[in-house]
Design brief:
Elements lengths: L6 E2 L16 H10 L4 E7 L10 H5 L4 H21 L5 E7 L6 H12 L3 E4 L3 E2 L2 E2 L4 H11 L2 H19 L3 E2 L12 H5 L2 H17 L2 E5 L1 H4 L9 H10 L3 E4 L12 H10 L25
Parallel strand pairs: 1-2, 2-3, 3-4, 4-7, 7-8, 8-9
Antiparallel strand pairs: 5-6
Helix pairs in contact: 5-6, 6-8
């Protein structure tokens, strides 16, 4: 495989700008370069609109929505400095990963206005304003709150649909993250009600001309199945939706991890590995992405 094929469009979280990551962002960029990457998208988490949505580790460190906004501003300054500094070695896209909870839509649009990221990754980490991926305990509490795994999944995919429709994120992040603490996720994702929501969301992604994240974070944790679940990946191929690897790295040792294997999987399924160029698709436009620049 030629090294110019290596890419990640979802990752590069660093301890400098993310409480649950480690290492400096420049160290992570250098790790990508050392591994032969020529293109990478750095997509730090957006700051929350209020203290209500702080993560536990952020609370423990005394962070607030205001200090996280200031930290995000420093991130955007630094990633653009690194983009210029290493431009002869690697093409860096300065991105942002969104959240989906109460008040996120005007907040995301304001952040886009303030910081003008190259593109956004649209993610869902919350169901009914409760974060489900922080811990198994938190996940199980939300299952009880929703009444069942099925209801939690259905709510997740409805929130995801709304986020995709309203934000038009260039990359749809870890599409099936809702399965994170569910040992029976394979059966659940293919059940009629849930799969119907999935197909609805996939058709919207296709209609808007968006890209899907082949998220490799589970492999870094020792799991066997990336996000996307293999049967979903095969359906996505049938629909003709582009898929791009994302290492979702949280440190220099994870930067670029499992990407060569992911590319081999995509090639074996017949996906086009001439990667699309990240760009902003303005979320305030309501026309079809085919009509957008």
């Amino acid at each position: 495989m030629e090294t110019r094929s290596l890419i990640s469009l979802h990752g590069g979280h660093s301890g400098e700008f993310c409480c649950h990551a480690r290492d400096r962002l420049e160290e992570i960029i250098r790790a990508y370069i050392e591994k032969g990457f020529k293109i990478v998208g750095i997509t730090e988490h957006m700051p929350p609109p209020s203290d209500r949505f702080l993560y536990p580790d952020e609370r423990q460190k005394g962070m607030t929505a205001i200090t996280l906004y200031q930290q995000f501003a420093r991130y955007m300054t630094e990633v653009r400095r690194l983009k210029s500094l290493y431009q002869s070695d690697i093409l860096i896209y300065a991105g942002m990963e969104t959240e989906t909870y109460a008040g996120y839509l005007p907040h995301v649009k304001q952040l886009i206005h303030d910081f003008k990221p190259d593109y956004i990754v649209g993610s869902v980490h919350h169901v009914d304003d409760r974060c489900f991926d922080y811990s198994r305990q938190a996940y199980d509490k939300i299952v009880l709150h929703c009444g069942s795994h099925e209801q939690m999944y259905l709510r997740y995919f409805d929130l995801q649909y709304e986020m995709i429709r309203e934000l038009h994120p260039f990359v749809v992040g870890h599409f099936d993250l809702i399965r994170i603490h569910d040992e029976n996720f394979g059966q659940r994702l293919l059940s009629p009600k849930i799969h119907g929501k999935i197909l609805r969301n996939l058709h919207l992604i296709k209609d808007l001309g968006l890209v899907m994240d082949f998220n490799l974070r589970p492999l870094a944790r020792g799991e066997k199945e990336p996000y996307l679940f293999r049967p979903l990946l095969e359906t996505i191929k049938e629909l003709g939706i582009p898929v791009v690897p994302g290492d979702d790295s949280h440190g220099k040792d994870q930067a670029g991890g499992h990407v060569p294997g992911a590319i081999r999987i995509l090639e074996s399924l017949g996906f086009d590995t001439h990667w699309p160029e990240p760009r902003m698709i303005r979320p305030d436009l309501k026309k079809n992405a085919k009509d957008m620049e």
